[in-house]
Amino acid sequence: MTQRVAVVTGGTGGLGSEICKALARAGRRVIAADLPARAADFQDEPHELDIHFEPLDVGDFDACGTFIERMQQQHGSLDILINNAGITRDATLRKMDRAQWDAVLDINLSGAFNLCRHAIEGMQGRGFGRIVNISSVSGQTGNFGQTNYAAAKAGLHGLTMSLAREVAAKGITVNSVSPGYIDTGMAQAMPAEVRERTIASVPVGRIGAPSDIARTVAFLSDDAAGYITGANIPVNGGLFMSF
């Protein structure tokens, strides 16, 4: 079987790097795409797995087009796209300025559009594709001080469902994963009392590990997962439950 090629945006972060490793262990050739300044983070990691770094600003539409074209030329295809890159610029709405709003929407939502728009044609031509968009429980419940982030993450699942309908007949699935509280740098920076309150709010009694998300992404991007599309998979320890 031909080795599948996967791109993971935000691939050097705590969550992104774990997704890269899970996909590589599943036999994929993985491209960790991130800002050029993050190259040092990638180089500090041991890389016995088939994972490679490529610089990319997901907020730049034209750069995303050039990147996708280069990956397809270098590796022969781009089969799996994980839109994981994301930022926060938290503030209550009455204190939020337009730059904070635009920055989060540009990276967290438009970044996924930029990559999908350029990658989808090649996937259609090859008759195979797996796209997984990393949303958030905040996009389902809202979160104080995160109108920009919650709007972007909710919009990301709207993109997921619509694109899933457009490409389902072409062998391409498009799904979202909505993490709850995950033990990455952001959670580790919480004051101790806030962290304790957070853990107490999660029914399973712990903050999630990046591997909890990575396993879900690997499952959705598997060749055998072709009958799951347009879905949002919550991985939040029971923090938010719905139909």
What's a quick, concise take on this entry?
This protein has helices spanning 14-25, 39-43, 61-75, 98-126, 138-141, 147-167, 185-188, 192-201, 210-220; strands spanning 5-9, 29-34, 51-55, 80-83, 129-134, 172-179, 232-235. The chain has 243 residues and is of the alpha/beta class.
Based on secondary structure, the structural category is alpha/beta
Approximate shape: globular
Output the CATH homologous superfamily: NAD(P)-binding Rossmann-like Domain
* Secondary structure tally: strands: 7
Sequence of strands across the biggest β-sheet: 3-2-1-4-5-6-7
Model description:
The chain is an alpha/beta fold and 243 residues long. The protein is 46% helix and 16% strand. The chain has a seven-stranded parallel beta sheet, sandwiched between helices. Helix 4 links the parallel strand 4 (80-83) and strand 5 (129-134).
